[in-house]
Amino acid sequence: MAGSWLPRCLLLLLLLGVSHGAWNMRQIRHTLHRQRQLDSFKSFYIRLAFPKGASGYTEPIEGHYTQPLDHFNRRNNATYRQRYWINEEYWQRPDGPVFLYIGGEGSLSEFSVLSGEHVDLAQKHRALLVSLEHRYYGASINQDGLTLSEIRFLSSQQALADLASFHLFISQKYNLSPRNTWICYGGSYPGSLSAWFRLKFPHLVYGAIASSAPVRAKLDFTDYNKVVAKSLSDEAIGGSAKCLDLVKEGFRAVDALLHSGNTSELEKDFSSCDALSGPDDSAEFVGNLADIFMGAVQYNGEIRGNNVRRLCQIMTTESPQSAYEGLRKVNQGYMESMGLQCVQNSYEKSVADLNSTKINPVGVGERQWYYQTCTEFGYYQTCEDALCPFSPLITLNSQLALCTRVFQITMESVQQSVEFTNEFYGADHPKSSRIIFVNGYCGSGHLLAKICREGGGSPCSLSAEYAKALVEAISTTGIATLMFYVYKHLQFLPKFTFSNVCGSARGSPNLLLRDQGRLHMPRQSLHFNNRLFSGGLFTK
């Protein structure tokens, strides 16, 4: 049976932006962003060396489009320049489709239209490739954009209006018509934007791919660490019950030292850059230590040496040791893999980092993304639940306090903003169509994504051929591009028999990859998916 050997974590969480204020997670996100850029660079040159029927390399077009700073106030004449890329190499003029790649909480590059499975599909379907960097990230920001007076124009609603305006710009530039079918793509937060663009502007895009899209805003994302705990005990990815127990025991030992005031031992054993001074630093310290395990689950295998299997090997098998010593070795290994001499555990320095208004055109926008969590999404990873394997010092209040310290946003305002976001977009039940949601079960992204609820119908099993294709896709290109292999290989779908309708008779098509190779999909979306993956989507 395919499910007996299919890895349970088919698609781990792609969220660069799940919110956690500790320093280590910021280092992990920046490293991962650089690694993904490098992977795209390598993939592009492999494409050049081994072309698949391409006639030759065409330099992508980079440009900057003038956008209103505030789409919703005509009296505000301020503008900013938004960066975009265009790849015309595969486009069949004049009626070929348009693939829109949506940027998120980090900078984009020209490889957004040169590398990836969406580029392979563009070649196959003769599509025009365009990508748009998110406002306030990368180079798409004014010089004073990160100040308190200007950052208020950063929101998903403004970003969707940017996409609509950009759609008009491209349509006019290439004299496009309704015959040019638009498909938008995104993963993680851009996956949400992809779904929401189809939801709010259905006349502009015919279909959307939303991978690991956290469409449901959530203030206290305590379930995040429940999934981390489950993954640490999952033998399919190198975890074990013993590993999870030792992680819990190790954090209890750390908490005991913190409560006793013996911080000097912790500073030495875990290579703290600064002395731990007060409860805020203690929370920062345990948050940084937990980040190593969160990052291993969240980005399993994407950062060298930081994956569940390796961490659990250190905790359980390397030599007779205490759980505390295991945590010390895990921290040491993490520092070596990241090239760190010490770990910054100063809460005040973290506040200073988030307060910085210096623009970084080539990385992850930490200040910008934390602002969006305070004003729209929440996503705060906490450990106040008994099932969390880490320290209870990782609290909701400690993370909400950053909204107040950095942006002067009250805790009550954050809660109201999260509620508004869910009401505005429909949370995990958006009333739209032609949206494909691809989510993993072991990663925590599925907890915030659109899924078929229990009782909506029975799942169907993947064939061995399809499961094998998925595993080969993972080993060949990495988890980040798995979503494209999913729909690229869905020609297997006609082999399946769907016995029940999953979910309501209305709503968006929903594809959910789950552990043991399970698929959930509404019956009414089957026709759409068969048309999409046979190439028929691009003919209305």
Task: Describe this structure in a few short sentences.
The chain is of the alpha/beta class and 540 residues long. It has a domain at 2-32 and 219-418: Four Helix Bundle (Hemerythrin (Met), subunit A), CATH 1.20.120.980. Helices cover 42% and strands 10% of the residues.
Give an overview of the whole structure.
Residues 1-21 form the signal peptide. It comes from Leptobrachium leishanense (Leishan spiny toad). GO terms for molecular function: dipeptidyl-peptidase activity; serine-type exopeptidase activity. This is Thymus-specific serine protease. The chain has helices at 23-49, 117-125, 156-173, 189-200, 223-232, 241-260, 263-269, 279-298, 308-316, 323-338, 347-355, 366-377, 396-407, 411-425, 464-477, 482-488, 526-533, and strands at residues 61-68, 79-87, 98-102, 128-132, 182-187, 207-211, 218-220, 378-380, 435-438, 460-461, 512-514, 518-520. It has 540 residues and is an alpha/beta fold. It has a domain at 2-32 and 219-418: Serine carboxypeptidase S28, SKS domain (Four Helix Bundle (Hemerythrin (Met), subunit A)). A seven-stranded mixed β-sheet has the order 1-2-4-3-5-6-9. β3, α2 and β4 (128-132) form a beta-alpha-beta unit. α9 (308-316) packs across α10, α11 crosses α13 and α12 packs across α14 (411-425). The two termini are 39 Å apart. Residues 1-17 and 441-540 have low confidence and may be disordered.
